[in-house]
Amino acid sequence: MSAPVRVAIVGGGIAGVGLALGLKDHAHLDVKLFESARAFGEIGAGVSFGANAVRAITGLGMGEPYAALADHTPDPWRDIWFEWRHSDDARLLGTSRAPGVGQSSVHRADFLDALATRLPMGMTQFNKRATRIEHGADSARVHFADGTDHEADIVIASDGIKSNLRDDVLRGLGQAPVAPRFTGTCAYRGMIESDRLRRAFEAAGVDTHLIDVPQMILGLDAHILSFPVKQGRLINVVAFVSDRSDANPQWPTGQSWVREASRREMLEAFAHWGVAARTLLKCIDTPTHWALHELAQLHGYVHGRLALIGDAAHAMLPHQGAGAGQGLEDAYFFAQLLADPAIARERLPELLAAYDAVRRPRACRVQQTSWEAGELYELRDPRVGDEDALLGHTLETRFDWIWNHDLDAEVATARARIDASTKVEADRTV
Ligand SMILES: Cc1cc2nc3c(=O)[nH]c(=O)nc-3n(C[C@H](O)[C@H](O)[C@H](O)COP(=O)(O)OP(=O)(O)OC[C@H]3O[C@@H](n4cnc5c(N)ncnc54)[C@H](O)[C@@H]3O)c2cc1C
After folding, report:
1. Which of 14, 92, 231, 353 lies most in the core, judged by the most C-beta atoms within 10 Å?
2. Distance in angstroms (rounded) separating the CA atoms of residues 194 and 292
3. What are the tens digits of pLDDT across the range 325-355?
4. Omega of the bond prior to 177 within 30 degrees of 0, cis?
5. Distance 364 CA to ligand 1 centre (A)
6. According to the model, what pLDDT value does residue 2 have?
7. Which residue, by CA, sits nearest to atom 37 of ligand 1?
8. 263 catalytic, yes or no?
9. Burial class (CB in 10 A: 0-12, 13-18, 19+), 325
């Protein structure tokens, strides 16, 4: 028996834990997950997944815990992803439908907890902050802030938007480092007890349909989304405000990206909005304020035996609800291909090259269209502007290409690339 292939995953967010779960049952792999925090942790907000992400979740073996926790749009609106409404009077602009999936979402902390309990004992090490990587001929060594290190045959960095390992990849590719950049958009986030919101809507004369069905309310330089989580007991709300006055907005160095905010401050940002939006926001007692950052599209995700996945590779604006989904697609890709002992043992460089060639164009496109979606929602799309009918029509089908993506076709393409490079090599040695 040859020694197992050593896989090191750095960062235990949704992407890293998802990958670890997808790899945990293979005897030919020795998987270790390194997390910088003392424990797994996610925030108490909702995260929604498109059909593509739900397929990745299922393929990674997380379908059962996901189904147990997930909220979906109730019947008879089950297929609805979002209804799009105008900020003035909440008039309906259009409806995006995702047949069979609708709006599928979970409470982040509950989901990560459920996943983490399924990881085998001993796979995860906490308090391990990766600081740098050292490349060997057929391996890589991760160094941690506590002075320890770990050698692996492949290192997968899922350490988020502030990744410590990303610059190593870029340096290796002869590229300049890429730091997260402030997008000019900030978001107020909060959760509301749905019973409370129902009473508030009834008192204000707002249709309570807007509680049960996911909503996006659109206005100039701002938009608000809401959808139910925790089996409909809570409503997750995110209210975005964008300042487009500066083409190159800067977030003050050293200032936290997240802070507590007052309800008054949040309401001031939506002072001229209609009764539905304002009633919704008035029910958030203690909003948090998030400065949204993203990454530029990278020119490569791989160097030596190191690959970037998730937000470490392609952090994006959250406007398509697709960021975590892209990380899960990355995880699914690696889980499928590393499951093949022949690839894991002998073709790691080809696998890494295939990952970069196959996954990066899609993730970059999702990044780009996430930004464009924000322009559209906030009535700044140069073609659509604030034309109700065109806006509604454009939004109805805009997301289908993300959701309908064939993950197994990606894996098959990668396999074909790996096989082709294997054949070239064999021909060369004949
Ligand atoms: C307001 C908002 C709403 C969003 N809504 C959605 C949505 O509805 N749907 C969706 O798909 N996406 C959404 N996203 C995007 C989504 O949150 C991210 O894409 C996703 O959480 C990224 O997961 P990740 O595992 O790649 O990174 P992270 O969640 O950032 O995890 C990184 C992990 O690595 C650890 N770590 C960091 N540095 C180190 C280190 N040096 N060494 C070891 N460990 C380290 C961290 O502690 C953390 O556990 C949203 C984002 C925002 C801001």
Report:
1. 14
2. 27
3. 999 999 999 999 999 999 999 999 999 999 9
4. no
5. 17
6. 84
7. 159
8. no
9. buried
